[in-house]
Write a structure and sequence with these properties.
Layout: H1 22-51, H2 53-60, H3 64-67, H4 69-88, H5 94-114, H6 118-139, H7 143-146, H8 152-181, H9 183-204, H10 218-225, H11 227-247, H12 250-257, H13 265-289, H14 291-312, H15 316-331, H16 333-344, H17 349-377, H18 382-404
InterPro entries: MFS (IPR011701), MFS_dom (IPR020846), MFS_Efflux_Transporters (IPR050189), MFS_trans_sf (IPR036259)
GO molecular function: transmembrane transporter activity
Protein name: Putative MFS family arabinose efflux permease
Length: about 400
Amino acid sequence: MMASTGTTEAAGPAPAAADPSPGSLVRGWMAVCAVALGIFAVMTTELTPVGLLRPIGATLAVSDGAAGLMVTGPGLVAAVAAPTTIVVLGRVDRRAVLALLLGVLVAANLISALAPDFAVLLAARLLVGVSIGGFWAIAGSLALRLVPQRHVAAATSVVFGGVAAASVLGVPLATVLGDLAGWRAAFAGLGGLGAAAVVLLFLLVPRLPASEPIRLGQLPALVRSNAGVRVGIALTVLLVTGHFTAFTYVRPLLGDVSGMPAGIMGGLLLGYGAVGIAGNFLAGAGAGRNARSTVLAIAIALTAALPVFALAGTTPLGGGAALLLWGLAYGGVSVGLQSWMIAAAPRAAEAATALFVCAFNAAIASGALVGGLVVDTLTVPGAPWAGAALTLLGAAVALGARRRSPST
Protein backbone atom coordinates (compact mmCIF):
# COMPACT_ATOMS: atom_id res chain seq x y z
CA MET A 1 0.00 0.00 0.00
CA MET A 2 1.18 3.54 -0.66
CA ALA A 3 2.41 5.58 2.23
CA SER A 4 0.92 8.95 3.03
CA THR A 5 3.00 11.90 2.00
CA GLY A 6 0.90 14.53 3.73
CA THR A 7 1.51 16.44 6.91
CA THR A 8 -1.88 17.98 7.64
CA GLU A 9 -4.07 14.94 8.10
CA ALA A 10 -6.49 15.08 10.98
CA ALA A 11 -7.16 11.98 12.98
CA GLY A 12 -9.92 9.99 11.35
CA PRO A 13 -12.78 8.12 13.00
CA ALA A 14 -11.84 5.32 15.31
CA PRO A 15 -11.97 1.88 13.72
CA ALA A 16 -13.99 -0.99 15.13
CA ALA A 17 -12.51 -3.12 17.86
CA ALA A 18 -9.71 -5.39 16.78
CA ASP A 19 -11.26 -8.54 18.25
CA PRO A 20 -15.06 -8.19 18.32
CA SER A 21 -17.43 -10.95 19.34
CA PRO A 22 -18.89 -13.06 16.51
CA GLY A 23 -22.26 -11.34 16.98
CA SER A 24 -20.66 -7.91 16.76
CA LEU A 25 -18.84 -8.89 13.59
CA VAL A 26 -22.07 -10.10 11.99
CA ARG A 27 -23.81 -6.85 12.92
CA GLY A 28 -20.92 -4.91 11.45
CA TRP A 29 -21.20 -6.75 8.14
CA MET A 30 -24.98 -6.28 8.07
CA ALA A 31 -24.40 -2.55 8.52
CA VAL A 32 -21.88 -2.60 5.67
CA CYS A 33 -24.49 -4.23 3.41
CA ALA A 34 -27.10 -1.62 4.38
CA VAL A 35 -24.69 1.18 3.47
CA ALA A 36 -23.91 -0.59 0.20
CA LEU A 37 -27.64 -0.72 -0.62
CA GLY A 38 -27.92 3.01 0.05
CA ILE A 39 -25.01 3.84 -2.22
CA PHE A 40 -26.47 1.50 -4.85
CA ALA A 41 -29.73 3.46 -4.70
CA VAL A 42 -28.12 6.89 -5.04
CA MET A 43 -25.73 5.89 -7.82
CA THR A 44 -28.39 3.98 -9.77
CA THR A 45 -30.54 7.09 -9.62
CA GLU A 46 -27.66 9.21 -10.90
CA LEU A 47 -27.00 6.94 -13.87
CA THR A 48 -30.48 5.72 -14.82
CA PRO A 49 -30.86 8.31 -17.63
CA VAL A 50 -27.96 6.56 -19.42
CA GLY A 51 -30.18 3.57 -20.19
CA LEU A 52 -33.32 5.64 -20.86
CA LEU A 53 -31.79 8.56 -22.72
CA ARG A 54 -33.69 8.15 -25.97
CA PRO A 55 -37.11 7.24 -24.51
CA ILE A 56 -36.97 10.29 -22.21
CA GLY A 57 -35.73 12.52 -25.01
CA ALA A 58 -38.47 11.32 -27.33
CA THR A 59 -41.21 11.91 -24.75
CA LEU A 60 -39.99 15.37 -23.76
CA ALA A 61 -38.76 16.43 -27.22
CA VAL A 62 -35.05 16.98 -26.52
CA SER A 63 -31.92 15.81 -28.37
CA ASP A 64 -29.50 13.12 -27.16
CA GLY A 65 -26.98 15.77 -26.16
CA ALA A 66 -29.56 17.83 -24.28
CA ALA A 67 -30.91 14.73 -22.54
CA GLY A 68 -27.35 14.10 -21.35
CA LEU A 69 -27.79 17.11 -19.05
CA MET A 70 -29.73 14.72 -16.78
CA VAL A 71 -26.32 13.19 -15.99
CA THR A 72 -24.24 16.38 -16.19
CA GLY A 73 -26.48 18.37 -13.80
CA PRO A 74 -26.52 16.04 -10.78
CA GLY A 75 -22.84 15.26 -11.28
CA LEU A 76 -21.93 18.95 -10.92
CA VAL A 77 -24.19 19.38 -7.88
CA ALA A 78 -22.78 16.22 -6.28
CA ALA A 79 -19.24 17.50 -6.76
CA VAL A 80 -20.13 20.55 -4.65
CA ALA A 81 -22.32 18.65 -2.17
CA ALA A 82 -19.60 16.13 -1.24
CA PRO A 83 -17.22 18.50 0.58
CA THR A 84 -20.03 20.83 1.69
CA THR A 85 -21.93 18.06 3.50
CA ILE A 86 -19.03 16.90 5.64
CA VAL A 87 -18.22 20.49 6.60
CA VAL A 88 -21.75 21.80 7.26
CA LEU A 89 -23.02 18.61 8.95
CA GLY A 90 -19.70 17.77 10.56
CA ARG A 91 -21.14 17.34 14.08
CA VAL A 92 -24.27 15.35 13.14
CA ASP A 93 -24.56 11.59 13.67
CA ARG A 94 -23.57 9.95 10.39
CA ARG A 95 -26.52 7.55 10.34
CA ALA A 96 -28.97 10.44 10.60
CA VAL A 97 -27.22 12.33 7.80
CA LEU A 98 -27.34 9.30 5.50
CA ALA A 99 -31.05 8.80 6.21
CA LEU A 100 -31.78 12.47 5.48
CA LEU A 101 -29.93 12.31 2.17
CA LEU A 102 -31.81 9.17 1.15
CA GLY A 103 -35.05 10.97 1.93
CA VAL A 104 -34.02 13.72 -0.48
CA LEU A 105 -33.35 11.01 -3.07
CA VAL A 106 -36.83 9.51 -2.65
CA ALA A 107 -38.47 12.91 -3.14
CA ALA A 108 -36.37 13.67 -6.22
CA ASN A 109 -37.25 10.37 -7.86
CA LEU A 110 -40.98 10.86 -7.27
CA ILE A 111 -40.78 14.35 -8.78
CA SER A 112 -38.93 12.88 -11.77
CA ALA A 113 -41.62 10.26 -12.26
CA LEU A 114 -44.32 12.95 -12.35
CA ALA A 115 -42.39 15.62 -14.27
CA PRO A 116 -44.61 17.26 -16.93
CA ASP A 117 -41.68 18.65 -18.94
CA PHE A 118 -37.89 18.52 -19.24
CA ALA A 119 -37.32 21.61 -17.08
CA VAL A 120 -39.04 20.02 -14.07
CA LEU A 121 -37.24 16.74 -14.64
CA LEU A 122 -33.89 18.51 -14.81
CA ALA A 123 -34.64 20.41 -11.58
CA ALA A 124 -35.41 17.11 -9.84
CA ARG A 125 -32.16 15.69 -11.17
CA LEU A 126 -30.25 18.59 -9.59
CA LEU A 127 -31.85 17.65 -6.26
CA VAL A 128 -30.55 14.11 -6.81
CA GLY A 129 -27.03 15.57 -6.92
CA VAL A 130 -27.32 16.78 -3.33
CA SER A 131 -28.08 13.26 -2.15
CA ILE A 132 -25.38 11.63 -4.25
CA GLY A 133 -22.51 13.85 -3.18
CA GLY A 134 -23.32 13.90 0.51
CA PHE A 135 -24.18 10.21 0.87
CA TRP A 136 -21.13 8.92 -0.97
CA ALA A 137 -18.73 11.29 0.78
CA ILE A 138 -19.76 9.92 4.17
CA ALA A 139 -20.44 6.29 3.22
CA GLY A 140 -17.16 5.77 1.40
CA SER A 141 -15.08 5.75 4.57
CA LEU A 142 -17.53 4.04 6.96
CA ALA A 143 -16.01 0.56 6.55
CA LEU A 144 -13.26 1.77 8.89
CA ARG A 145 -15.87 2.23 11.63
CA LEU A 146 -18.07 -0.81 11.08
CA VAL A 147 -15.66 -3.77 10.90
CA PRO A 148 -12.23 -4.67 12.34
CA GLN A 149 -9.12 -3.48 10.51
CA ARG A 150 -8.44 -6.89 8.96
CA HIS A 151 -11.86 -6.76 7.25
CA VAL A 152 -11.70 -3.16 6.05
CA ALA A 153 -10.46 -3.94 2.52
CA ALA A 154 -13.21 -6.51 1.98
CA ALA A 155 -15.86 -4.25 3.51
CA THR A 156 -14.75 -1.35 1.31
CA SER A 157 -15.18 -3.64 -1.70
CA VAL A 158 -18.73 -4.42 -0.58
CA VAL A 159 -19.61 -0.75 -0.05
CA PHE A 160 -18.16 0.18 -3.41
CA GLY A 161 -19.79 -2.87 -4.86
CA GLY A 162 -22.85 -0.65 -4.52
CA VAL A 163 -21.25 1.91 -6.84
CA ALA A 164 -20.15 -0.72 -9.31
CA ALA A 165 -23.50 -2.50 -9.17
CA ALA A 166 -25.27 0.79 -9.87
CA SER A 167 -23.19 1.42 -12.96
CA VAL A 168 -23.34 -2.10 -14.25
CA LEU A 169 -26.49 -3.66 -12.77
CA GLY A 170 -28.82 -0.94 -11.47
CA VAL A 171 -28.85 0.93 -14.78
CA PRO A 172 -29.65 -2.22 -16.79
CA LEU A 173 -32.47 -3.18 -14.41
CA ALA A 174 -33.90 0.34 -14.58
CA THR A 175 -33.59 0.17 -18.37
CA VAL A 176 -35.53 -3.09 -18.51
CA LEU A 177 -38.25 -1.64 -16.25
CA GLY A 178 -38.35 1.51 -18.36
CA ASP A 179 -38.64 -0.48 -21.58
CA LEU A 180 -41.46 -2.60 -20.14
CA ALA A 181 -43.46 0.00 -18.22
CA GLY A 182 -42.13 3.39 -19.29
CA TRP A 183 -39.33 5.60 -17.97
CA ARG A 184 -41.60 7.19 -15.36
CA ALA A 185 -42.08 3.76 -13.78
CA ALA A 186 -38.29 3.39 -13.57
CA PHE A 187 -37.99 6.59 -11.51
CA ALA A 188 -40.92 5.57 -9.31
CA GLY A 189 -39.22 2.23 -8.68
CA LEU A 190 -36.03 4.02 -7.67
CA GLY A 191 -38.07 6.05 -5.18
CA GLY A 192 -39.25 2.79 -3.62
CA LEU A 193 -35.70 1.46 -3.52
CA GLY A 194 -34.55 4.58 -1.70
CA ALA A 195 -37.34 4.24 0.87
CA ALA A 196 -36.35 0.62 1.54
CA ALA A 197 -32.74 1.71 2.00
CA VAL A 198 -33.81 4.26 4.64
CA VAL A 199 -35.61 1.57 6.64
CA LEU A 200 -32.66 -0.85 6.51
CA LEU A 201 -30.26 1.94 7.43
CA PHE A 202 -32.09 2.55 10.71
CA LEU A 203 -32.50 -1.17 11.41
CA LEU A 204 -28.93 -2.31 10.69
CA VAL A 205 -26.53 0.62 11.06
CA PRO A 206 -25.59 1.72 14.59
CA ARG A 207 -25.43 5.34 15.65
CA LEU A 208 -22.21 6.81 14.28
CA PRO A 209 -21.31 10.01 16.14
CA ALA A 210 -19.19 12.32 14.05
CA SER A 211 -15.50 12.49 14.79
CA GLU A 212 -13.75 15.86 15.05
CA PRO A 213 -15.49 18.14 12.52
CA ILE A 214 -13.68 18.79 9.28
CA ARG A 215 -13.00 22.43 8.48
CA LEU A 216 -13.28 23.60 4.90
CA GLY A 217 -9.64 24.65 4.86
CA GLN A 218 -8.50 21.09 5.59
CA LEU A 219 -9.58 19.89 2.15
CA PRO A 220 -7.32 22.13 0.03
CA ALA A 221 -4.57 21.67 2.63
CA LEU A 222 -4.75 17.91 2.15
CA VAL A 223 -4.46 18.36 -1.63
CA ARG A 224 -1.48 20.69 -1.29
CA SER A 225 0.45 18.54 1.15
CA ASN A 226 -0.26 15.03 -0.13
CA ALA A 227 1.10 13.99 -3.52
CA GLY A 228 -0.77 10.68 -3.43
CA VAL A 229 -4.09 12.50 -3.04
CA ARG A 230 -3.25 14.83 -5.94
CA VAL A 231 -2.43 11.90 -8.22
CA GLY A 232 -5.59 10.08 -7.11
CA ILE A 233 -7.73 13.09 -8.02
CA ALA A 234 -6.04 13.38 -11.43
CA LEU A 235 -6.62 9.67 -12.11
CA THR A 236 -10.26 9.93 -11.06
CA VAL A 237 -10.88 12.88 -13.39
CA LEU A 238 -9.21 11.25 -16.39
CA LEU A 239 -10.56 7.70 -16.05
CA VAL A 240 -14.12 8.57 -15.06
CA THR A 241 -14.47 11.41 -17.57
CA GLY A 242 -13.17 9.11 -20.29
CA HIS A 243 -15.60 6.36 -19.38
CA PHE A 244 -18.67 8.59 -19.20
CA THR A 245 -17.77 10.44 -22.39
CA ALA A 246 -18.76 7.18 -24.09
CA PHE A 247 -20.99 5.37 -21.58
CA THR A 248 -23.52 8.18 -21.17
CA TYR A 249 -24.40 7.55 -24.81
CA VAL A 250 -24.20 3.75 -24.75
CA ARG A 251 -27.79 3.40 -25.94
CA PRO A 252 -27.19 5.50 -29.09
CA LEU A 253 -23.90 3.64 -29.58
CA LEU A 254 -25.56 0.23 -29.40
CA GLY A 255 -28.32 1.37 -31.74
CA ASP A 256 -26.40 3.45 -34.29
CA VAL A 257 -23.01 1.71 -34.29
CA SER A 258 -23.86 -1.91 -33.47
CA GLY A 259 -27.34 -2.05 -34.98
CA MET A 260 -28.65 -3.55 -31.76
CA PRO A 261 -32.45 -4.03 -31.56
CA ALA A 262 -33.89 -1.85 -28.80
CA GLY A 263 -35.65 -4.82 -27.21
CA ILE A 264 -32.44 -6.59 -26.22
CA MET A 265 -30.42 -3.62 -24.97
CA GLY A 266 -31.63 -3.97 -21.40
CA GLY A 267 -30.66 -7.64 -21.27
CA LEU A 268 -27.27 -6.88 -22.77
CA LEU A 269 -26.64 -4.20 -20.17
CA LEU A 270 -27.45 -6.80 -17.50
CA GLY A 271 -24.60 -8.89 -18.88
CA TYR A 272 -22.42 -5.81 -18.73
CA GLY A 273 -23.48 -5.52 -15.10
CA ALA A 274 -22.58 -9.08 -14.20
CA VAL A 275 -19.02 -8.84 -15.51
CA GLY A 276 -18.66 -5.38 -13.97
CA ILE A 277 -19.46 -6.69 -10.49
CA ALA A 278 -16.84 -9.38 -11.00
CA GLY A 279 -14.39 -6.63 -11.97
CA ASN A 280 -15.23 -4.74 -8.78
CA PHE A 281 -14.35 -7.63 -6.49
CA LEU A 282 -11.25 -8.55 -8.47
CA ALA A 283 -10.07 -4.96 -8.17
CA GLY A 284 -10.96 -4.85 -4.47
CA ALA A 285 -8.82 -7.90 -3.77
CA GLY A 286 -5.93 -6.44 -5.76
CA ALA A 287 -6.22 -2.95 -4.28
CA GLY A 288 -6.02 -4.36 -0.77
CA ARG A 289 -2.49 -5.54 -1.66
CA ASN A 290 -1.31 -2.79 -4.01
CA ALA A 291 -3.59 0.08 -4.98
CA ARG A 292 -1.18 1.58 -7.52
CA SER A 293 -0.72 -1.58 -9.58
CA THR A 294 -4.46 -2.27 -9.50
CA VAL A 295 -5.39 1.20 -10.76
CA LEU A 296 -2.75 0.97 -13.48
CA ALA A 297 -4.18 -2.35 -14.67
CA ILE A 298 -7.71 -0.88 -14.68
CA ALA A 299 -6.56 2.16 -16.66
CA ILE A 300 -4.87 0.00 -19.29
CA ALA A 301 -7.90 -2.31 -19.59
CA LEU A 302 -10.31 0.63 -19.95
CA THR A 303 -8.08 2.28 -22.53
CA ALA A 304 -8.12 -0.94 -24.57
CA ALA A 305 -11.87 -1.57 -24.19
CA LEU A 306 -13.13 1.72 -25.67
CA PRO A 307 -11.32 1.44 -29.04
CA VAL A 308 -12.32 -2.24 -29.20
CA PHE A 309 -15.94 -1.16 -29.02
CA ALA A 310 -15.43 1.48 -31.71
CA LEU A 311 -13.62 -0.93 -34.04
CA ALA A 312 -15.28 -4.28 -33.39
CA GLY A 313 -18.70 -3.15 -32.23
CA THR A 314 -20.14 -2.52 -35.69
CA THR A 315 -22.38 -5.62 -35.53
CA PRO A 316 -24.76 -6.77 -32.77
CA LEU A 317 -22.45 -9.67 -31.89
CA GLY A 318 -19.32 -7.55 -31.91
CA GLY A 319 -21.00 -4.76 -29.97
CA GLY A 320 -22.23 -7.18 -27.31
CA ALA A 321 -18.81 -8.77 -26.85
CA ALA A 322 -17.07 -5.39 -26.72
CA LEU A 323 -19.58 -4.12 -24.16
CA LEU A 324 -18.82 -7.05 -21.85
CA LEU A 325 -15.09 -6.30 -22.05
CA TRP A 326 -15.87 -2.66 -21.29
CA GLY A 327 -17.96 -3.63 -18.24
CA LEU A 328 -15.20 -5.84 -16.83
CA ALA A 329 -12.66 -3.04 -17.20
CA TYR A 330 -14.83 -0.34 -15.64
CA GLY A 331 -16.20 -2.47 -12.80
CA GLY A 332 -13.08 -1.98 -10.67
CA VAL A 333 -12.72 1.78 -11.13
CA SER A 334 -14.63 2.92 -8.02
CA VAL A 335 -13.08 0.57 -5.48
CA GLY A 336 -9.63 0.88 -7.04
CA LEU A 337 -9.60 4.68 -6.89
CA GLN A 338 -11.21 4.79 -3.42
CA SER A 339 -8.55 2.40 -2.14
CA TRP A 340 -5.88 4.64 -3.67
CA MET A 341 -7.25 7.69 -1.84
CA ILE A 342 -7.56 5.98 1.55
CA ALA A 343 -4.07 4.50 1.20
CA ALA A 344 -2.73 7.96 0.37
CA ALA A 345 -4.39 9.57 3.43
CA PRO A 346 -5.22 6.84 5.97
CA ARG A 347 -5.57 9.32 8.87
CA ALA A 348 -7.92 11.59 6.91
CA ALA A 349 -10.17 9.00 5.29
CA GLU A 350 -13.39 11.06 5.34
CA ALA A 351 -11.71 14.17 3.92
CA ALA A 352 -9.94 12.13 1.24
CA THR A 353 -13.22 10.41 0.37
CA ALA A 354 -14.98 13.78 0.05
CA LEU A 355 -12.31 14.95 -2.38
CA PHE A 356 -12.61 11.68 -4.30
CA VAL A 357 -16.40 11.94 -4.54
CA CYS A 358 -16.11 15.57 -5.64
CA ALA A 359 -13.68 14.61 -8.41
CA PHE A 360 -15.66 11.49 -9.40
CA ASN A 361 -18.96 13.30 -9.81
CA ALA A 362 -17.41 16.28 -11.55
CA ALA A 363 -15.89 13.75 -13.93
CA ILE A 364 -19.27 12.09 -14.56
CA ALA A 365 -20.69 15.53 -15.39
CA SER A 366 -17.72 16.40 -17.59
CA GLY A 367 -17.88 13.09 -19.41
CA ALA A 368 -21.58 13.48 -20.15
CA LEU A 369 -20.97 17.03 -21.37
CA VAL A 370 -17.96 16.17 -23.54
CA GLY A 371 -19.74 13.13 -24.96
CA GLY A 372 -22.81 15.22 -25.70
CA LEU A 373 -20.73 17.73 -27.64
CA VAL A 374 -19.08 14.93 -29.62
CA VAL A 375 -22.38 13.18 -30.35
CA ASP A 376 -24.27 16.34 -31.33
CA THR A 377 -21.52 18.09 -33.29
CA LEU A 378 -19.53 15.18 -34.75
CA THR A 379 -20.76 11.56 -34.68
CA VAL A 380 -21.99 9.00 -32.18
CA PRO A 381 -19.02 6.66 -32.94
CA GLY A 382 -16.64 9.47 -31.97
CA ALA A 383 -17.57 9.19 -28.29
CA PRO A 384 -15.52 6.02 -27.54
CA TRP A 385 -12.47 7.50 -29.26
CA ALA A 386 -12.72 10.71 -27.25
CA GLY A 387 -13.10 8.67 -24.07
CA ALA A 388 -10.11 6.47 -24.93
CA ALA A 389 -7.88 9.53 -25.34
CA LEU A 390 -8.66 10.56 -21.75
CA THR A 391 -8.22 7.09 -20.25
CA LEU A 392 -4.89 6.78 -22.07
CA LEU A 393 -3.71 9.91 -20.24
CA GLY A 394 -4.92 8.30 -17.02
CA ALA A 395 -2.87 5.18 -17.72
CA ALA A 396 0.19 7.37 -18.30
CA VAL A 397 -0.36 9.14 -14.96
CA ALA A 398 -0.75 5.82 -13.12
CA LEU A 399 2.38 4.42 -14.76
CA GLY A 400 4.38 7.52 -13.87
CA ALA A 401 3.23 7.39 -10.25
CA ARG A 402 4.13 3.71 -10.04
CA ARG A 403 7.62 4.34 -11.38
CA ARG A 404 8.21 7.17 -8.91
CA SER A 405 7.19 4.91 -6.01
CA PRO A 406 8.33 1.37 -6.82
CA SER A 407 7.95 0.23 -3.21
CA THR A 408 4.16 0.56 -3.41
